[in-house]
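Re: [help] complex structure
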Amino acid sequence: MKINVQSLAFKQSVTVLVSISIVFAILFGLGGLRINEKLSQMLLQKGEEISRANVALINNLFSSGKSIGEELSVEIGTQNLGGEELDEFLLHSLTGVRATIPQVVAMVVAFEPGKAPGGVEGEYMRLAYYSGKETSVINGGDYGETKWYKGTKDSLKGQWQEPFIGQFIKEPIVIYTTPIFRTDASGQKEFVGVLCVDISIAFLKDAIASIPISSSGYAVVLSADNTIIAHPKNELTFKSNFASISRSASHKRLVEFENAVDQMKHGLFLGTSVDGQDAAIYFTAMESINWKFLIVWPAEVFMEEQRSVGHMFAFISLCGYFILFVIVLVSMFRVSRPLKAIAAAAGKIGQGDFSAEIPALPGDDEISQLAKSFEDMRQSLQAYFESEKSMDRVKRDLDFSRGIQVGLLPKDESEENTADDRHALAPLLLPAEDIGGDFYDFFKLDNDRLAIVIADVSGKGVPATLLMMVSRIVIRTLAMHVDSVSEIFNETNYELSRRNKDNLFVAMWMGVLNLKTGRVDYVSAGHRPPVIHHKDCSVEFVKGKPNLAMAVMEESRYTQESMTLAPGDSLFLYTDGIIEAENSEGKPFGKFELLKALSECCEHDPAELCKFVKARMDSFVGEARQMDDIAMLAVRYDGEKDNR
Amino acid sequence: MQIVKTQQGGTLTIALDGRLDSLTSPQLESEIQGKLDGVAHLVIDFEKLAYISSAGLRVMLVAQKIMSKQGDMVLKKVCQEVREIFDVTGFSDILTIE
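Output below.
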């Protein structure tokens, strides 16, 4: 299929598609946002589900460890245990606790120098631990300046220490330290040492590795200062700090991450995981120990889901877009194809081939009506020519032309069904004896828009009449489908120019009057400007660029202009037969005489306005013969009832 | 209407006297159609032309179309009234008027 980019079908299709594209773009944008939002929600929900049980388990363990520490420290303090008794107590407690919580691997008591029972001088530290086979107690020392001891002594409160790899137990452990108090004889409470409960967290690695997480996600546990305690990649634990989350994190920085952990307890971030990959990270704070439980989804996987939804959306849109394109194109070609056929047939008729049949079109739309009336014309032409062969050719031509001209043009508004209470309109046609090219036209585009046309086709006889018919039909048809008057003119000119072998041309003025607002959009194609006859009878020519007459050059482009009529104003359209009407001395009536006549007519009825101008012209011309067609069309704009 | 043709080398001057309307236009057209072979410059003298109708404009268009293929065409000494008709119909845009 050859596509003519000048064609109405193509232009309309492009317009429709551009509009659709804009709508699609907006939908895409909104759709994208919505997808992101949904995916985030989904991840947040998933994170919560996976974390809940694990966090509860870990919380439980540490809560138990903590309460064991609190209990035992009180016991050691109040019973004033020392020496063998202390070792016995530690071993007994460790074994007992391990029966239910096997993660507890050691218990340590460290006394303030000189405060140990039994009069031991200096530091005294006893460590009961499980070696993997049995439990035993050994001595320890040099703890006075350690962080765990000093921290507990200074705050006099139980606390969790940062996890580390044990000295005796070579696995990651976390310890809970509690101060030991002794009440002396005078009832004074005194700090005498620290009890530690050591809990192995080696199990965490296996525990988190066994958590099944979809989309290549994995779990990570961070300590209070963001050290990685458990990670599926063992080599990262205790070495990397999750501070790297701040690097190139597009949404939130680490500071914000930490603040959020403090405030929000759980949430979703986009950031960088320790192994340097972009990731979507869900976190939950563990209240018992102030650690964080993280679930990390590599961004690729996250983005992949986002993308696949996007791709599906794009694919569906593209299919829809393509289908729309085809539908629009096909429907537009259906409109324009019969027009082309009619134009081609008109061309043949113009060359004298009256047998060129117009294809009958189904339906009862504007175009099939047009085709039908064109076919009627062709048949009457054919019949006429066949039956009247003996008639003088020129006279026959002219009679025919006049017949068409007078017969075709609507004589009043009832014929076109345009009457309403917002305007009044009247035409007047005075055909000359041997010319047949002037025409006026009026029709409604919709309830509120009235199109008015006046035109003068150069030349005379059948060719001029046919050009007039074709112009009128093309204008009418295009006006039903194209909003802009200039575009109607561009298109009509193109169609007329292409087949114009006789170098005929059409001077035309067309305006579209908006009956609601009084606004008139108009274009002149080499036609004299109409006169505005104001309510107060003042007059002026409509301003604007004349442009080139139609059918002269294919590529002519027409400039559209607009003006606004006030209620009570009239537009007086006329062909140059009035201006050029001459009296017996060869002096033309002229445009100033026309203007003068209109200014002196204070009659606002359109029919009377036309009659008045005709009377003035008749009295000027006198007995001289009318050389050219004269067409007039007067329209009075009344406006909406409420605004009058 | 009187038509006076003067040939000087490749330049043909056509002087018009009277009115160029639907009655007289065929006369001018017959002087142009098929008779401009070898003409590189066509000058149409409008000095004594008082009126041009749309039929006359058509002949100008025919001449312009022929001449734009083989040379140029100039309209000279166009009076105010005729000039206005060229302007109103937009023909001043496609014709060379001096």
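Helices of chain B lie at 25-32, 54-70, 80-88.
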